[in-house]
Design goal:
Number of domains: 2
CATH topology of the largest domain: TIM Barrel
Bound molecules: pyridoxal-5'-phosphate
Shape: elongated
Distance between the termini: 26 Å
Radius of gyration: 23 Å
Oligomer: single chain
Number of strands: 18
CATH class of the largest domain: Alpha Beta
Strand content: 15-25%
Strand order of the largest sheet: 8-7-6-5-4-3-2-9
Length: about 350
Amino acid sequence: MTRAARAIIDLGALQHNLRKVRDAAPGRRVMAVIKANAYGHGMLSAARALSDADAYAVACLDEAMVLREAGINKTIVLLEGFFSAAELPLLAQYGIAAVIHHDSQLRMLEQTPLEGALRVWLKVDSGMHRLGFAPEAVKAAWQRLKQLPGVSLAGFMTHFASADERGGDSTRLQLHCFNQTLSGLAGERSLANSAAILAWPDSHGDWLRPGIMLYGVSPFAGQSGAGLGLKPVMRLQSQLIAIHPRRKGERIGYGGDYTCPEDMSMGVVAIGYGDGYPRHAQAGTPLLVNGRRAPLIARVSMDMVCVDLRGHEQARCGDPVILWGDGLPVEEVAAAAGTIAYELLCRVTPRVRMQLSAS
Ligand SMILES: *Cc1c(COP(=O)(O)O)cnc(C)c1O
């Protein structure tokens, strides 16, 4: 028998979550964000399941080429655009649109005669201060773009630093800045990531850019995807490969970090940080053993984790263990490991077999 660690990807849930995006922002177009291997869910199968989206957004040309080479001919947008002029012929040839966020990209465009056409989104730094043209530089950048033969403007984009803070001023200020900067400039608008789609209707513009919510995960701290009507797409699971009675005072795992508080049963699960389970998950992080919660104990190792089986006397070797998925939000595991769900999903490693299901 092979190792049981696997990620089960529910493509029906992905489609359900896309419908939730549309419900939250009726009439807007959707650029489904499937960068980073669709947040660890498998980019190609995610793209195919999300065929109702109006476009795909990825981080870079390599990701876009995987889609094109698989025969996907929907609009693709590179959220960070191109990194060198050498990419430009491929963008034009394969009809891949690029975000232009920096003067260096404008110069590359000006210095590289383009064969064919290129669609570009101009990115405005409305206050996140990471990528984009400063408000006072936007008009000049737009005028330079307009001069370039073969280049056409798809629209204007910006990104929010704190859209997950429902009450905060930051998003309101960014929205205001974006609208002010673009007043009088014709072109489509794209502002909203998942958090803004759900919390900032004024930011919906023409094109939505949902990422994390497509995968069934809440963009808000302290609120689960299920609470927002989303369905988790990934279930990470493995199985018990050993069960042992331990004596009070016995120490378990590397460093002997965990000491049994009493005589107790513990189990070993075939999954570890070599699979992407977070090494920093705290003792007490929940796992589902036969569908019921049991706490993680001891240090997470590369191939295994240990679980406290008190109250799980019926558990047997081979029984299924869910690390996250329906019934155990990845958000909760992330919080127990001092990180965010985005990171846990993205870092599931290639040795975890991915299995598609359609609910
Ligand atoms: C990744 C990304 C998104 C998606 O963000 P979520 O929080 O996952 O919805 C949207 N826009 C840009 C520019 C991004 O880089």
